[in-house]
Design brief:
Number of helices: 17
Oligomer: single chain
Strand order of the largest sheet: 8-1-10-19-18-17-16-15-14-11-12-13
Largest sheet: 12 strands, mixed
Structural class: alpha/beta
Strand content: 15-25%
Length: about 475
């Protein structure tokens, strides 16, 4: 049974659910393996009905047992079946060994994989590693993974693409690039963040007919973002009902960032949007967008009057790190209004760490590394840990940008699935910070504004990419589409 869900679980929780099914519900492990094999073979038949061949790569654990089970079913359905073992099948654990023996009894043949000699045909089934992999892929397995990725065959991954960490979504040296990943019992966290979107393909979750109450009894480790609905506006509404966003940034030479953020705040539905920027820029930024109220501000004393009128502050887009930027940052830090920190505001925060619960922090991996005094490789190795550490140290709401953007309020974790590689261009983060600021101004909580902002930001990019393609997508294309999606 396929189980669409927004609940994500860590590997320890999945193992506990499997143990409970076997020990408490009395479902034999071998029966769970049969169900997994059946679910996999059903997907192969459904997606590639013209194929009559399968090539199965089997490893040395229960994941390999699932592979032998698929191979047996394919053989009985008169497919041409090739099975390559990367580990001696005689050393398989109990249920997997039984699956291997059943495959042999059905007339199956198992071969050693030889680079350049072993033939790959039909649909490839990746059953090399399961959710337990936590070390770098060894050389022999790496050669098999390379052969799979170099083939022109469609690939189905069993539970998780081999080489991908099932919890963090990081690649352990190399990983299989699957067209479809059929995962079991529940959705794993690592299938949706980090490097995972490049490797998982479409994700199908089959609960192996285990009572849904088993997972329901566990608090999920994280949840996939869904789209929050905005309330209908009263017919008597006026601009004062929807807040006043003050955006601070646009240092010398960096007018574009603050303009993009300001326009996103407007398109999100904020009642008023002001920009505090350098005097040299104040007459230029709102050309073509007169709704932006621009103010030349050269000192913290002048900024105070604007801060008094604002209901929400966004600081960072194009801010820089010179004396002016530091004075603007220091002045804002003295206020307790809802605040979104982005770009150089995060870099300045890393230099002067402090904690507040009334702000949203929006780091990309580089900024996250500076906030935690580490390097980007450490951030990418475990994005969930980095997210937790930033939120714990700095407070408020933290969102960690990247494929599978992560959000934490200190208790719950959310994973975004909208967005595409077309967003790999300058200014996208500025649009996001302005969007979140605009949603805050309309009365959403810090968490609600962040969740909706991340979802719609990616949704707008996906909508535009579907129409025009990913290449050439500009941050300035998003605000108008954001308006449509929020309505």
């Amino acid at each position: 049974m396929q189980t669409p869900s927004n609940k994500l679980y860590c590997t320890a929780q999945i193992r506990e659910a499997e143990r409970y099914a076997i020990d408490e519900l009395g479902i034999p492990g071998r029966e769970l393996m049969r169900r997994a094999g059946f679910a996999l073979f059903e997907q192969i038949k459904l997606r590639w009905p013209e194929q009559q061949s399968v090539t199965v790569f089997c490893g040395g654990g229960n994941n390999g047992g699932d592979g032998y089970e698929v191979a047996r079913l394919a053989l009985q359905a008169h497919y041409r079946v090739s099975v390559y073992a990367l580990s001696d099948p005689a050393g398989l654990p109990g249920d997997a060994l039984s699956a291997y023996q059943d495959f042999l009894q059905a007339g199956g043949v198992v071969s050693d994989f030889e680079v350049g000699q072993s033939r790959l045909q039909g649909v490839i089934v990746d059953a090399l590693f399961g959710i337990g992999l936590s070390r770098e892929v060894g050389q022999g397995y790496a050669l098999a993974i390379a052969a799979i990725n170099d083939s022109d065959c469609p690939v189905v991954a069993v539970d998780v693409p081999s080489g991908l960490h099932a919890y963090t979504g990081s690649v352990l040296g190399c990983a299989v690039k699957a067209d479809v990943t059929v995962t079991f019992i529940g959705l794993k966290c690592g299938l949706f963040t980090g490097a995972a979107p490049e490797y998982c393909g479409e994700i199908i979750c089959n609960n192996l007919d285990i009572d849904a109450a088993v997972l329901a009894a566990m608090p999920p480790f994280a949840e996939l973002l869904d789209k929050l609905a905005l309330p209908r506006r009263p017919r008597t509404a006026h601009k004062g009902h929807f807040g006043h966003v003050l955006l601070i940034g646009g240092n010398l030479g960096y007018t574009g960032a603050i303009r993009l953020a300001g326009e996103a705040a407007l398109r999100s539905g904020a009642g008023l949007v002001s920009i505090a920027t350098r005097v040299a820029h104040s007459g230029l930024i709102n050309i073509g967008r007169p709704e932006l109220m621009c103010h030349g501000v050269e000192c913290g004393e002048t900024l105070h009057a604007l801060l008094d009128k604002a209901s929400v502050i966004v600081i960072g887009p194009g801010l820089g790190q010179d004396d002016w930027a530091r004075e603007m940052f220091g002045t804002v830090m003295g206020r307790d209004k809802p605040c979104v920190l982005d770009a150089d505001a995060l870099n300045l925060l890393a230099e002067q760490p402090q904690r507040h619960d009334n702000w949203v922090l929006t780091p990309h991996p580089g900024e996250a590394a500076r906030l935690l005094a580490c390097n980007t490789r450490q951030i990418s190795a475990d994005r969930f840990a980095a997210l937790s550490d930033i939120q714990s140290q700095y407070g408020g709401i933290c969102l960690l940008k990247g494929a599978g953007t992560l959000i934490s309020n200190g208790e719950a974790v959310y994973v975004g699935t909208t967005g595409n590689p077309g967003m790999a261009s300058g200014g996208m983060g500025d649009v996001l910070s302005g969007l979140i600021g605009g949603l805050l101004a309309q009365g959403l909580s810090l968490e609600q504004a962040t969740r909706l902002g991340v979802y719609v930001h990616g949704e707008a990019a996906d909508s535009l990419a579907a129409e025009l393609g990913e290449r050439g997508l500009l941050a300035g294309d998003l605000p108008e589409r954001i308006r449509k999606l929020l309505n």
